[in-house]
Amino acid sequence: GEKEADTLEIVLKDRVSKIEVSLLYGVLADEDIITRSAIIRNTGNNKVTIKKASGACLDFLTGDFDVMKFYGRHAMERNVERSRVGHGTISFGSRRGASSHQYNPAVILADKNATEDFGSCYGMLFVYSGNFLCEVEKDQMNQTRLLLGLNDDWFSYPLDVKEEFIVPEVIMTYS
């Protein structure tokens, strides 16, 4: 509701294509979370096709991280798999048409030495029950990027003139 969250909207516009993107940041202070989503608008004169859309992206200039993802099956949900983030890209998601206990649209980026009681962890949850993709990339400068959104393998969304596409929300938190 309006009283439980403050929203920051940042509007980006491309002068050539006339595509406009509103980045929406919701701050729920009582819950210690920030939400992030986007609205893509076609304000130009031509139909366009969206090929990739992510709800959130975080960049870390420093850090030695592990990535924690969740998988499972009926009566054995949310098993944790923890892997070191090395150079290159780790990606996981679902192409099944639905997220579920098989592959959960949640991720934790944890300090290498973080435990249940100590260390920094950054969590993201994609609030969407369809295909999703999470990417964690460590570059040559040892910077890490965490990206969560729609799986772009089979994603192709036509956006006609004066139409908009709302990217599902990502919930972010820190512990």
Let me know the largest β-sheet: 8 strands, antiparallel
Our estimate of the beta-strand percent is: over 45%
- What string gives the helices and strands in order? EEEEEEEEEEEEEE
- Quantity of strands, as a count: 14
Radius of gyration: 17 Å
N-to-C terminal Cα separation, in Å?
Answer: 24 Å
Shape designation: globular
- Biggest sheet: strand arrangement: 1-2-3-14-10-9-6-7
Q: Helicity range of the residues? A: under 10%
Low-confidence runs: none
Count of helices? 0
So what's the oligomer here? single chain
Structural class: mainly beta
What is the mean pLDDT? 93
What's this entry about, in short?
With 175 residues, the chain is an all-beta fold.
Tell me about this structure.
The protein is mainly beta and 175 residues long. 0% of the residues lie in helices and 60% in strands. The chain has strands at 6-13, 19-28, 33-42, 48-50, 54-60, 65-73, 76-84, 88-94, 103-111, 121-126, 132-138, 144-149, 157-159, 164-174. An eight-stranded antiparallel beta sheet has the order 1-2-3-14-10-9-6-7, with no helix packed on it. Strand 11 (132-138) and strand 12 (144-149) form a beta hairpin. The protein is globular. The mean pLDDT is 93.
